[in-house]
Request: fold
Amino acid sequence: MSFLESFDINKGLSLYIHVPFCISKCSYCAFYSRSGCSDSLMDAYLERLLEELDQVNGIMAGRRFDTAFIGGGNPGCLGPRRLERIAQAVCKCGRPSEFSVEMNPESLDESFFPLFSDCFTRLSMGVQSLDEKALGFLGRNADLLNTRKGLGLSQKLREQTGCDLSYDLITCLGSWHDELKDVRELTGNYPSDHLSVYALTLEEGTPLFERKPALPSEDEQYEILSRVWDYLKTIGFEHYEVSNFARPGKRCAHNCRYWAYGQYLGLGPGAASTAFSEDGSVHRYQFRPDVGSYVSSGLFGGYDKEDLNRNESVEELVLMGLRYKGGLDLARLETMVQKTIDMSIFEGISGFQIIDNHLIPDDEGFMTADAAASAILGKLY
Ligand code: SF4
Reply:
């Protein structure tokens, strides 16, 4: 079966597009992107992506994507004209009910605003901190002045177009950093519909990993995150995934599809897709993280396929379900493991409740989701 034939469009399709360009590389970042790229490389990327989207629109047979997300990298690097061509191609069969684009504060300007009236419904901005020292520590391209400028523009964008706003923050940088001050200042001065709050992790191969900074211990991280999570709840955010918070009705539908283990199609170098066969087996496709190969290989030629075995797909279902308020779907788990599950395996795992045949985390469960997943997987077979 070819790459595109693997997706059942009758079940609804979410689309992810990976833009592999950044102005400069942040010191902690392990995502695939390249900095300092030429216009000609961005144009070649654009043309290849539009060719792919044309084929994808063909299989959509007039149906719109349920959700779409242009991420990266920093899609703002493409500029408004290239981004408009991508957005229009995505909306060819109708505007997705949620259409997000990521952009860094220093990339947003008013020339992008019309795209939010016509195509995008949501801006996801990587703010990361409102502390000058923290921005430097993370190797961000934008200093505090430019970060604030971008935030101010995002507020204006929301007023003018009614789009939803999401901001990303990074916590647990070290004892010198006051996370709660960051969170209070961001939420107090720049209202948003959604927040993603991550704990910094050192990814091998990044400059920050090489520097080996002293980061908070696991217990200290627990305390920092608890303080931040409690504060966000007091100001009305719903905690709906380990790192994600939303105003009522403003969960990110696109990411919820990942966490609920639904199918999605990913285009671009480094982008992954998940598809399911009728028998429930799971297929992962990914284009290698190399924009040069992406622009030079045959159409859909470079998407490598991996068939997950039953244990691997069960592991993914459990890991994602326990990190998300949608919970672990126990009926689906039974189907995947092909046996009736003895509910006593969930006894002694605190932080979770069974509601409507889903195992759902509370705040304690969010903290211990990975350990709970290991415990459950160990008892399943
Ligand atoms: S802007 Fe985002 S994708 Fe680009 S290097 Fe920084 S963290 Fe990574």
